[in-house]
Specification:
Helix content is about 65%, strand content about 0%. Helix 2 packs antiparallel against helix 6, helix 3 runs antiparallel to helix 5 and helix 3 packs parallel to helix 6. The radius of gyration is 22 Å and the shape is globular. The two termini are about 40 Å apart. About 25% of the residues are buried.
Length: about 160
């Protein structure tokens, strides 16, 4: 069919009439969040493989990524229905317990991101260490886990 014979849509709503992003929103958010989580851990695995000695990359710095991962699981185990009290009325403290759990998950996530900044600048930038990649890798790991957690929590729709 020649290009001049293709019917032109009257508006953008007619152009996107058949594509409903609501149906694929959960899939896209899950793939994006999983990709960010994978990329963050991949950076740290790369840094640990390149610098195996404790002088260049302290192995205790892996704690930040583990704490960020625990925080991600804590944030994403609480649903919106549990927060509102629609589906979660029993248990330890009902919706208040779910809110406290979510808050503690966010505290762990933010705390690990702040600790990664501290490791980057306090351990690698300020002392002017020659390989700065391990500090950057720790920071990128925690940043990607944090953003992956946020995308997975708020990018999905739970009413399917």
């Amino acid at each position: 069919m020649p290009v001049c014979c293709i019917p032109k849509p009257e508006s953008m709503s007619q152009l996107c009439e058949n594509c409903d992003p609501g149906e694929r929103r959960n899939i896209i958010a899950s793939i994006l969040a999983g990709g960010l989580f994978f990329t963050g851990w991949w950076f740290v695995i790369d840094a640990a493989a390149q610098f195996p000695s404790d002088d260049q990359f302290k192995h205790a710095y892996h704690v930040c990524g583990v704490i960020a991962t625990i925080g991600m699981f804590m944030v994403n185990t609480v649903t919106s229905g549990q927060m509102r009290g629609d589906t979660y009325t029993d248990g330890c403290m009902g919706p208040y317990g779910a809110r406290i759990w979510l808050f503690l998950g966010f505290v762990l996530s933010f705390g690990s991101l702040i600790a990664a900044c501290w490791i980057l600048f306090g351990g690698y930038v300020m002392p002017d260490m020659d390989p700065q990649w391990p500090g950057v890798a720790i920071f990128l790991q925690n940043m990607f886990i944090f953003f992956g957690s946020i995308i997975y929590k708020f990018g999905r729709v739970e009413e399917f």
